[in-house]
């Protein structure tokens, strides 16, 4: 828990004990929800980690020394009090995930060096104080998802909307002057996104099995060829009620 205004002091021992192994075998330093108010310098000795989670703290600044984390692929800084990012963040060339959602970032304090993150796949800038998006982000050709929701945006540059690999763009709850026009501009992204709503990798085992079973049933119905209709044959009923008449008492006993 946080200790007053100073926040919690993170020691190297605490940091080492906070290292976890991620699902793909990487080393993840998880210091989320620790009541941290200043970037712990001691973690620079653990700069060889693959993932760094400093989310849900009270950080106001990330130092330029973040560039020491050259192996970093995954950086989560969401839900802090960040007002700016260092230019050095552009040196993290292996970064594919960057979450800086729910901070106090302004457009002026977004470093232009963000456009150097050539391997970035997911970028979350939602819940900040952005009134525009730098056109230079159009240089992130590998970007697949970008969150811009809950800002003060009035437009989204074409260089961002037309990124070649973009599948998901969330720009909800921004004061666009013409929301209908904005939806039309984003239509191509929305249509592409729908193709990925039920990818197998996104389903749990039980849901995947259910979908596969339903698909198999549908295929069975499609493959069934209607058999030629046959006239029913009832040899014992050639004469009306002939069989029923003989066995009338027997059926009553049953």
TrEMBL record:
InterPro entries: Leu-rich_rpt, Leu-rich_rpt_typical-subtyp, LRR_dom_sf, LRR_domain-containing, LRR_R13L4/SHOC2-like. It comes from the Eukaryota. SUPFAM superfamilies: L domain-like (SSF52058). Keywords: Leucine-rich repeat, Repeat. Residues 222-254 are annotated as: Disordered. Residues 66-206 form the Disease resistance R13L4/SHOC-2-like LRR domain. Residues 225-240 have a biased composition (Low complexity). GO terms for cellular component: cytoplasm. This is Leucine-rich repeat-containing protein 18.
């Amino acid at each position: 828990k946080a200790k007053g205004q100073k926040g919690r002091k993170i020691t190297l021992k605490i940091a080492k004990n906070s290292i976890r192994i991620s699902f793909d075998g990487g080393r993840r330093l998880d210091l989320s929800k620790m009541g941290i108010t200043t970037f712990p310098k001691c973690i620079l000795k653990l700069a060889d980690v693959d993932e760094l989670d400093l989310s849900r703290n009270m950080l106001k600044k990330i130092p330029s020394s973040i560039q020491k984390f050259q192996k970093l692929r995954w950086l989560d800084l969401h839900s802090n009090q960040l007002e700016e990012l260092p230019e050095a963040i552009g040196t993290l060339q292996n970064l594919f995930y960057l979450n800086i959602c729910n901070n106090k970032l302004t457009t002026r304090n977004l470093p232009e060096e963000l456009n150097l993150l050539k391997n970035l796949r997911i970028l979350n800038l939602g819940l900040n104080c952005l009134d525009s998006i730098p056109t230079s982000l159009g240089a992130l050709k590998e970007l697949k998802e970008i969150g811009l929701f809950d800002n003060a945006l009035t437009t989204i540059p074409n260089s961002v909307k037309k990124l070649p690999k973009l599948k998901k763009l969330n720009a909800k709850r921004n004061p666009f002057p013409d929301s209908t026009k904005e939806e039309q501009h984003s239509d191509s992204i929305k249509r592409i996104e729908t193709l990925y709503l039920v990818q197998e990798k996104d389903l749990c085992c039980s849901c995947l099995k259910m979908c596969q079973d339903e698909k198999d049933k549908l295929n069975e119905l499609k493959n069934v060829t209607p058999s030629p209709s046959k006239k029913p044959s009832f040899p014992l009923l050639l004469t009306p009620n002939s069989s029923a008449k003989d066995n009338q008492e027997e059926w009553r006993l049953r």
